[in-house]
C-alpha cells in the first residue's frame, strides 16, 4: 500500500488528460476547469486505497476512482447552481465563470462521462460497478432534495437529518471504497464491510464539517466560519440545541434562525453561545466519535491483514483529527 499523497498524485496526473482537446470547447473546458480545482480528492483516493487493501494494484482501480470523482464534481456544479454560489474552493463556480446553461450542460456531460469509465472493465465487474453507481447517484439526488426540503421546514428530526447527510454525502464515500473492493474481486462480505466503513466515516466527516462550520479556526477551515448559521441551516448542532435548550433559549434560537441581519457577527456569537450552553456542542462531538467508532468496528470483521486494518484505522483517525 502507498501514501495518501501517492494516490492523490495518481489521480491528479490522470485528470490532466480526461477531456483535454475535446470539442466543443465550451462543453469540455468547464469540465477541465472544475476538475483542475483539486480539493482533497478523498473519494478517488479511497477507491485506490481499497483496491490495494484487497491486494490488487491501484492502477486497475483508476477508471473506477475517476468515475467517482467526475460524478462528485458533476454534483458540485449543479449544487452550486441550486445555491447560486459564487465560489468553489476559492475560485469562481462554473456557472459564474461561464453561464447557467453551460453549467447545466457540462454537468450533464460529466454524469455520462462517469459511466463511460466503467467500460474499461470486463462485463462482470462493469455490471457490479454500474449497479452500485446508479443506486448511489440516485441516493445523492434524494439527499440533495431532503436538504432543499429542510430549508422550509421547522419540524426536521435528528433521524431525518442523519438520513439526509447519509444520502447526500456518506453513500458516495461508502461506494468509493466498495468500488475498489469490486475491482479487486474480493468477497461480497468484504465489499459490504468496507462500504459500511466508508459510510459511517462519511457521516462522521459531515457531522464534523457541521461542527467546524461553527467552531473551526477561520485560518484553517477554508470556508467562512458561521456560514451555516448565517444561512439558517438546520444542522445537527442546531437540532440538538432545539432539543436540549431551556424554553427561553429555544425561543431565542428560533428567532435568530428566522432573521438575516446585515451584520452577522452578533448573530453567530449568540447562536454559538446557545450551542455551548445547551450541550449541543458536546452532543455533536460525541456523535462524531460514535460514528467513527462504528466505522472502526466494521474493520474487525473484515478478512484482511492486521496491517491493512491499521492503515484504514489511521486514515479514519487522521480524517477525524482535522481542523480544516
TrEMBL record:
Named cofactor requirement(s): Mg(2+)
Gene3D superfamilies (alphabetical): Farnesyl Diphosphate Synthase (1.10.600.10)
InterPro entries in UniProt: Isoprenoid_synthase_dom_sf (IPR008949), Polyprenyl_synt (IPR000092), Polyprenyl_synt_CS (IPR033749)
Keywords annotated in UniProt: Magnesium, Metal-binding, Transferase
Family indicated by similarity: Belongs to the FPP/GGPP synthase family.
PANTHER family given in the database record: GERANYLGERANYL PYROPHOSPHATE SYNTHASE, SHORT CHAIN ISOPRENYL DIPHOSPHATE SYNTHASE
Listed name of the protein: Polyprenyl synthetase family protein
